[in-house]
Amino acid sequence: MRSCSLSQEFRILIADRNRNICEFLKRELTNEGYLVQLTNNGWQVLRMMFLAPPDLLLLDLDMPYLDGLEILELLENNKKSVPVIIHTLLKEHENHPLIQNTAAFLEKDENDVNTLKSIISEVLRKNYPYRFDS
What tens digit of pLDDT does each residue of 47-79 get? Predict the structure, then answer.
C-alpha cells in the first residue's frame, strides 16, 4: 500500500492494446489502492475521457483506431486537463511536441513497475496536492 493516506481514491485509465499489460498494470495499481479502468483502443480512450474523466491517463502510443499522438492532439484541442503519462515502446516519439506537454514519458520495461508506480504517485501529488492527507 502507499505510504500516504488519501482523502479520495484516484481513478486511473490504462490505455494499452495489449491485454496482458493492461491486466498486469491493473493488478499492480489496484494493489496500491488506485481505482483502475482499462481500454484497448483509441476511440474508447476518448469516450471514457469525455464521459467520466479519470484522474490520470496512462497511455500507450501504439493504439488501434486512434494512436496515442492523435489522442493527445484531440485532448489538447478540447482542453481536457487530465495528466497523461506516456508508457510505450515507441521511444522515437519522445521528443514530439505533443509528448512534451504530457506529465511524463516512460519507456515500457516489464522489470521496472516500481518506477512506473513512483512516477504515477509523483504526478498525482503534483496535480492533486489537496487530495493527499498531511
Answer: 999 999 999 999 999 999 999 999 999 988 776
Place of cell 485509465: 13
Please state, in angstroms and as integers, the Cα–Cα distance from residue 73 to each residue in 7, 23, 131, following that order.
Answer: 32, 27, 28
**Cβ neighbours of residue 123 under 8 Å, at least 6 residues apart?**
56, 83, 85, 103, 104
**Homologous superfamily (CATH) for 11-131:** Response regulator (3.40.50.2300)
Work out the end-to-end distance of the chain between its first and last CA atoms, rounded to an integer number of angstroms.
17
Residue with cell 489502492: 33
* pTM of the complete model beyond 0.70: yes
Per-residue 3-state assignment (H helix, E strand, C coil) for the chain: CCCCCECCCCEEEEECCCHHHHHHHHHHHHHCCCEEEEECCHHHHHHHHHHCCCCEEEECCCCCCCCHHHHHHHHHHCCCCCCEEEEECCHHHCCCHHHHCCCEEEECCCCCHHHHHHHHHHHHHHHCHHHECC
